[in-house]
Task: structure prediction
Amino acid sequence: MSSGTAAAVSPSTPDRAADAPYAGLVTRSLAFAVDAAVIDGAALLVVAVVALAGTVLHIPDDVKTVLLAIGAAAYVVWGTGYFVSFWATGGRTLGNRVMYIRVAPAGGGKLGYRRAVLRFAGLLLAVLPLLLGLVPILFNDRRRGLQDAIADTVVVHDPDRRAPRPGGARHAPASRQLR
Amino acid sequence: MLGFAMRVGGAVGRTAASAAESAFLFALDVTLAAPVAEAAVDRVLSSALAERSLDRVLAGPLVDALARDLVKNSVPQRLADQLLAAGIAEEVATRLLAGPELHRVIDAALDSPAFDRVADKVVNSPALERLADDVANSPAMERAAVRVVESRLVEAVVRRLLESDELWLLVGEIARSEPVTDAITQDTLGFAGEIAAEVRALSRGGDARVERVARRMLRRSPK
Result:
């Protein structure tokens, strides 16, 4: 699950939980669902291509087993790399971009690959015991889960970059662009 | 006796006067019928005296008096009635339409700068706009439009258009054009963006609600 965010965000106490700068469990779950769809979609596409090739080529059973092992390892690498690289390079996976949230170090600065890997390991630890590691998100003032505590990160809401600017419309209606 | 003499004298005088009138008229008829009379009239009319006389008449008050009398006695109206009743108007119109004069007048009018000014004034006048509105919104225009739409002509035109390859080439060109593809892309992205924004707003509320429920279950104070 994506988490995290920024020390750049002032941890001022919000009047309402919904207005908190830190993303809650529902928002983070939705972002994670988008990420899972992307990861699994890409993996399924690759599997489909390989399976189609397998219908044409004769592959011995032993080779199939090896291919399965390689595929599983590739899936793990792909999933890990997806989260780690996005977190380390900006804190925003594709799901985070959709939900306008960002993983950031609690003390500010950049997350970096080392802490991104640490956070991914923390995420696995949080999920394995029946998701119990995510429960602190519901009670923590900064909505931090186990993975956030391990990597010292927070997940914050990103400002809506596409909000209309004062004094001007952002998108011209399509009909006007047709001239 | 005197009375008788006066009656006889009166009768003789009247007879003499009547005879004199007859003689005068006879002499006049003879004179008018004579070739010399025509020559005399020609000479009088071609003389300088006649010309000067006519000039004086036209320059004098006689013309004004004549005009007043003509108007007073409704002579122009009576004359116009007679002319119209005799079919003069139709003849004039037919002659104008058949002759070259009308075309010359129209050409001259179209070439004159005044025509441009008049046309500009008419086109920009509010009255023309009102007239156009009235015509466009009139029931007659609606009936005419319905008649046109329901006519076989429209059906035939549409069928021929749909059968023509040029139409589909044109449609393809428009569909592939940059403004159209840009517009479709922008609208699609805009729609997806609106849905995402809605989901984000709902998820924020969901965060708070889930936390409230969790805290209530564990009997902890709300944030």
In short: Residues 52 and 77 of chain A are 23 Å apart (CA to CA). The radius of gyration of chain A is 20 Å.
